[in-house]
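Hi support team,

I submitted a single chain yesterday and got back a structure, but I'm not sure I'm reading the token output correctly. Could someone confirm the output below corresponds to the sequence I sent? I've pasted both exactly as they appear in my results page.

Thanks,
R.
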Amino acid sequence: MATTEETRPGPTEAAGWRDRVRSTRAGRLTLKIVIGVLGGAMVIGGLIMVPFPGPGWLVVFAGLAVLATEFHWANILLAFAKRVVTAATDWLKRQNWFIRIVSTLLTAALAGAIVWLCLKLTVGVDLIEEARAFLKW
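Hi R., thanks for writing in. Yes, this is the structure output for that exact sequence:
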């Protein structure tokens, strides 16, 4: 069955659902707990993923967006994070190609060092020693 505009819930229907849940004291508390646990888990999971290749920061910001639906402090923190990321991105765009290349290389080196250190400390695999052994054959 194809989804049409008529069958999709609109923004007012979603807000109406939340309003119905919030209409009781138990519903408000339950919604805050569910949103807090879900958003908190997303933020913590995203922070764990940050040093590794993947969508770590995206998950952190998504978790903050989930928390911002129920908590005012999360809305303020999300707005602050957006301003900081936008300012850093705008600054980097204004720089010449040499600064952009150096910052990219430094970011890649830092990410590589974090992955190397995490693998060495948690799994016991030293990627540098593995590469040396591989190149010796």
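A quick pointer for reading it: The mean pLDDT is 84. Let us know if anything else looks off.

Best,
Support desk
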